Amino acid sequence: MSGNTRRRRWLVTALVLAVPSALIGFAALPSQAATTPVAAGNQLWTFAASTATTGKFLAKSVASGLCISNKDGSTAGNNPIVEETCSDIARMQWSFNELSAGQPTVAKDGTGTYSTVQAAVDAVPAGNTTRRTITIKAGTYRESVVIPSNKPYITFQGLGSGPANTVIVNNKPASTAGTTGSATVYVQAKEFQATNLTFNNDYDENIAASQALALALYGDKAVLKNVRVTADQDTLLIYNSARAYIANSYIEGTVDFIYGNGQAVFNACQIYQKRSTGGYLTAANTPASQTYGFLIYKSTITGSPTNLTYLGRPWGAAAQVTFRESSLSATIKVAQPWTDMSTNSWKNARFYEYKNTGAGATVNSNRKQLTDAQAANYTPQKYLAGTDAWNPVG
Prior knowledge:
It is built from 4 helices and 32 strands. The protein has a 10-stranded parallel sheet. It has an 8-stranded parallel sheet with strand order 10-13-16-19-22-25-28-31, with no helix packed on it. Strands 11-14-17-20-23-26-29 form a 7-stranded parallel sheet. The protein has helices at about 115-120, 175, 370-375, 380-385; strands at about 10, 35-40, 40-45, 55-60, 65-70, 90-95, 95-100, 105, 130-135, 140, 145, 155-160, 165-170, 185, 195, 200, 215, 220-225, 230, 235-240, 245, 250-255, 255-260, 265, 270-275, 280-285, 295, 300-305, 310-315, 320-325, 325-330, 350-355. The chain has 2 domains: about 10-100, no CATH class; about 105-385, Single-stranded right-handed beta-helix, Pectin lyase-like (Pectate Lyase C-like). It has about 400 residues and is mainly β. A hairpin with a 2-residue loop joins strand 4 and strand 5 (about 65-70).
């Protein structure tokens, strides 16, 4: 498409226009307007961009459909739009009103606008400034998806009856693809949102121990609701000091499966440690200059083995993690739920708890508890406010 053209969908007064948005476009030649009959009562029309929202388009009724032109209009270069040859029947003036192009839909069976999620992302214009919702029909989409930093405000919305019905999955290990290269979905752009779907990396760590990410969030202000994020090692990476709000969701993994240097709140989530030999829920790399890391808030922690799972270990020396008002099952190591990582001591990290319950919860010298006064500064809103007072919690 030429640089001076724009994609639009049109409603014509007294006509029904029911053409899929993927078929609507502007002609590359701005000096001509034309029509192509699609079906009775429907038209696929292309117009020069300079006449997009103004003036009256001359319409003639013909047996095979409509023939239209803007006889008195002109393009940006002042070249008249050519009137099509039509049978000489009474002419009528039609008004054209711009409509939204609608939401693109991804469907594996070809019934959507696109058949892959990446194709739908690719269609979003660079420098996008408005919310773009990509609906994804139920099914399994085996692909890797990258949302580049110049495509913010994208939403993935699963159309299945639940998040398990719409799955984006791949099986790349970091040992061959690199850390972010292994991610099934790698989000570089800010303001990403997702709901009612699953991000999965089904690489089996028993084949060869390796990271294999389901989701990497590098863009600020991500919001995930009612999603599933599942893998083995390093399931979910929140990095680049990005902020993320994850609510009413399910996170599953084995080792360090919530990790990174970002700031994230897990509100009313289910977190499941699936390895029979236990593992580590978190591995924060919070910079010392950053007050907040990860907050697990009013969530439920479960796992198969008893007394084998650590709440976390410090990837960075100043790691910050708080488990607050959450239910900790017997999978958690009761006597000492934190441990060292390389040369980083858990005792020097900022690991806190507050009013947790369940068989895996207790109060002892290895489990630093916040006071009520301190807890007032460790809320979801505080974790995510940043310098711009962002509050996705409501």
